[in-house]
Amino acid sequence: MSAAGVSESTVLPSNLGGGPHGLGDPDDKSLRKVEREILIPQKMKEKARKYKCATEVKEFGDCAKEKGLLMPFMCRSLAKSLELCLSKWYKDEDFIKECREEYLEERTFYRQTGIRQKQRKKESSTF
Question: Is the pTM of this model over 0.90?
């Protein structure tokens, strides 16, 4: 209720509002459709490229730089190995669970503090 004694109503469901900063309940572990279908797969893609398939990414990138316009023909085998590596990780249940849990931890931190993950990385690198 507000100071005038009138209850405040919002358009958002209760789990998307509220919390210490009005950003949602930090303890809520439910996922919205956009989180399940876009944000978590995006996190999986980043982690797979950076950590799981780093060798394949580097080899393909080097080949692409070296071959230029002939890259689609000359780097086909490297592109295929990169695709196989990435698709392997996209289907790995443990990796999916790891990324989902990491996303939920970041969202919980954001809902508790109001600080986004990118801001947190930037602030920690300035010290």
Answer: no
